[in-house]
Amino acid sequence: MKLIILALSLFFTGQLTYGTDIVDNFSKGGWKRITTTPGRLQVRKNRLFLEDKIGKNAWATAAKTFEIDIDKTPLLVIKVLHVSDRGQVKLIQKNPYSKKPVLNIAKPGIYTVDLKLQCRWQGKRKIEVMLYASGDGGKITYNYVKFTDKLSKKELAEIKKAQLPPKNRQPFYLVPLFNTCGYYFVTSEKTAVNVFYRRKGGKWQKALAPVWISEEQLYRGSIVGLDENTDYEFKIVSGNKVLGTKAFKTWSSQVPIAKTIVLNEKNFKGYLKINLKGSPTGWIKYVAAPGFILKNSGSKPLLDLNEAKYILLEGLTLQGGGSSAVYVRNCQSVRFINCDISGWGRIGKQRFDKDGKYYTEKGRAINNDAGIYLIRSKNTVVERCYFHDPRGTANSWRYSHPAGPEGMMIAYPESTVVRYNDFIGSDKHRWNDAIEGAGNFYKNGGFNRDADIYGNMMIFANDDCVEIDGGQQNVRVFLNKFEGALCSVSIQGCMAGPSYVYRNLIVNMGDEFGTTGQLIKSSSHYAGKDAVSFIFNNTVTGNGRSLPLHRLFKIVAKNNIFAGTSGIGGRTKCKKAETDYNLVPADKPGDEPHGIFGKDPKFENKQAGLYAPLKSCPSVGKGIAIDNFTGTGKVDIGAIAQGSDLVLPYRPIPVTLDKYQLNFSVKDGKPSAPQIVTATVGGKKFSADYKIRQNNVFNWFSVTPPGGKLKSGDNPAFIVKLNPEMMKERMLYKGVFLVRLQNGYSRPVVIYAKTDVKAPMKPVKKGVFTLYFEAENPTDGKPYKVIKDENASGNKCVYVDGKRKKTAEYSFDVPENGKYFILMRVRSDAPVGSHNSLMFSVDGEKMNSAHLKSAESWIWALASNSNSRLTQLKIYKLKKGKHSISIMPRESIYLDAIVITDNPKIFEQR
To answer: Rounded to two decimals, what is the model's pTM?
Structure first.
C-alpha cells in the first residue's frame, strides 16, 4: 500500500516526500524554462542542466512551484554539481506575493536557505523555486532541490569538506596599497588575537583587531593611515605569543618610465587597443600631444586595454566612446592619472510601457555604460580624473530600479585604488551609481578584495554614490564626500568582509526628485557567515535613513554623527550589531550606553558646506578611541574633528575655500546677487595653474576668472553669478564647479538655486492622453471632507483622513485599449512621511496601499496600489470603455485631482 501511495505522489507532484521532507531530484519533471529568459533546459534524474543563450539577458531561468509547510520544513537545500560562470536562486511566495533572491552560486556544492530567518516566511505556502544560469552563455547543473528541517549527515560532511582551506594557498600574506595594507593569516582559531605595525625599526602600534573567518580558517583585516612608499613591519600575536611577522612596503605614486607614447591624429583614429606589457622597472606611458583630444562618434570605446601590464595613461582628454569610453580587461598595474572623461554611452528612449528605463532601438535596457569599465584586473589606479556629461541618463526609482550610465563599472578586480576623483553627475545626466559593482552578492563581486576608495567627490546619482556590494575583503571607503543621491555607500551583500567605511561626509542626499533612501545602505537578503562592516567617524546629515542595521551580518558603528531624518534602524532585531558612541538625534536615550540622543549637531556653517563641528557641538570629545582609526586622546564623534583643517573630499593640496556650497534664488526672472568664494593658498613656495571646470550642462551659472595661477600666500576670489535666461525649466537647479589644478587635484563647490518656476496644475502635451477629474466630485459615494485651497484645482480639494472607512468612487472612460497610468495631485502635513499614503483599487480589485511621493506643497504623484514605498510606476492595462477607481483612507492626506494618462513623464516635477 505504501508503494502505491508513493507512486501516486510521484505521478501527481513530481517530487519525493520523506516524512515532512520534500525532495526533488528532477526525476519526474515539472520544471519549465521561463521563456522570457532564453536558453536551454535539460532535465533528467539527478540532473537539471541550464544554459543561457548568448546575447540577451545574460541569464536563463527554470522554475517549479512547491506546496510546503515552512514551519515544518524551513530549510531549503540545493546541491550544484557544476557551474561555468555563476548561478542564482530566487523564491516567489504566491500568496501574499513576495519575490526574494536567496542564493548566489559561484562554485559547486551544497547551498542552504533558512526561509524563516532569511525570507521571514512561515506556515503553509506555495513557493515557486527559480533556478538561474547567469553570465553570457553560462552553464550550470543542479543535483537536487530539497525542503527539510535539518541537513543530513552526508550533507553536513560535504559542507564541512568544502569549507576546508585549499592546501596550496598562502598561509600568511600582506597586500599593501598606497596608504593601507590588508593582511591574511591562516590558522586555527586562537584567543586574544591582535595585530601590530610600525615603520621599519620604529615603535610598535596596535591596529584594530582582526576578524576571524571560520569558513576559511583565517584571520584578516586592515591597517590604515600609512604613508606612501614607506617600509613597515607587521606582526600578529595571540596573547603574548607571536604567531607571525612580515615586512612590507606601501605603493609609490611615482613609477619608472621606460617608454612614452604620444597620442595624436596619426596614431589615434578614434579607437586604440592597448595590449603592450611594460615591467615593474619600466612602465609604458601614454600622453596626448598638446591640445589633442581622444574622441569618436560613439560606435567603439576610445581605449581598449586587454592583458596589458604596467601602463600609465596621464593627462588624456577623452570625449565619446561606445557604451563605455574605456575598457580595462584582464590587465595588471594600469594607472589612469589626471584624465578628463565625458561623452560616452547610449541615449535610448524612455519606455513607460515597460518600466521607465531607457531602451535601445532593439529593446534592450541601457545600463552599465561606464567612463571606465574595469574587469578582472589587478593593481589598478584611477586618480585625479574628472568624470562628467555622459550622453545618457539614468531613470529614478520612481519608475524602477535605476539603470544607465556610471563613472566607473567594477567587475571582480583585485587591489584597486580610486582616489581624488570628481564624479560629477547632473539632473540632465544622472548617474545610476557614480561607481557600480558587478556581482553584488558574490564573494568576488564588486571591488572584491583589497581596495581603497578615498578622497573622491561623488554627486548626483539616482541610486548609490558607490557600491562595494560583494566580497568586501579589506575594501575601504574613506575621506570622501557623497551628495545628491538616493544612497551614499552601499555595503549590502557583504559576502566575505571585513569592509571599512570611515571619515566620510554625507550631505544633501536625494535623487533627481529629492527622494532619499538608506544613507548608508545595508539591507539585503544576503551576507557572509562571518562578514563584518566597520562604520567609524562618518558625518551623515539631511533627509533619509541614516543606517539600517543588518540581520545577517555584523555591523560595528561607532563615533558617527547620524543626523538623518531617522537614525539607526533595527537595533533590537540585529543581534550581531555593535553600536555605541554615536550622535543620533532621532533615536531614544538608552539605545546605546554612551550614545548622544535628542541633540542636533552644531556645524560651522552648513549653508556654506562647512561641516566642522563648533566647540559647542555635543559630539566634541564624546567619542571613543579606536586602534589605528583615531587618536588616543580626546576623540570627536563625526568625520571632521573640531579645530582641524580637514576638508572633505580630502585632497593633499594647500588650497582651501571659505565656502563649498552656494545657495541662490531666481524670482520674476531676476537672480539673487553674485556670490564670492575666496581661496586661501598655503604651503611654502606652492604654485599651480588652475582652471574653473564645470559640466557642459551647467550653463546656468558662470565663474570668473576662468583660470589663473595659485601661489602661496594668495587669496584669490571667484565670482559666481547665475544666468537666469537658462533657468526656466526647474524649480531647483543643482550644479558643481571645480577649481581644478593642472595636475588634476581640485576643490569642488556645489551650487543650489531655487527658482519661481511653477509646474502646471494640469499638464497637457500634444500626443499625450490625459483625463482629469476632481477629487471633490466622486461619481459614487460621498466625497471626503472638502477643503478650500487657492492652490488647488477649482480652489477646492478633499482631506482623506483615517476616520472614514467608506470608499469614494470615480468612474471614467478610456477611448481605446492600452497601457495607462494613474496619478494623484496631493500634498501632506508635516512630517510628510506619516501623511503620504491612501488605499485604492481599480475596477473593484482588492484594496491596497499606495505610497505617494508627496510634499508639503501640491505635487503630482504616481499611484501604484502595490504597497511599494520606492517604485510608484504601475501599468494598468485597460480596455476601451468604462472603469472606476475607489479610494479609502490609510494616512491623512490632501487630494486635489486624479488623472489617467498614457505618459507620466509630463507630470515630473523637479
So the answer is: 0.89
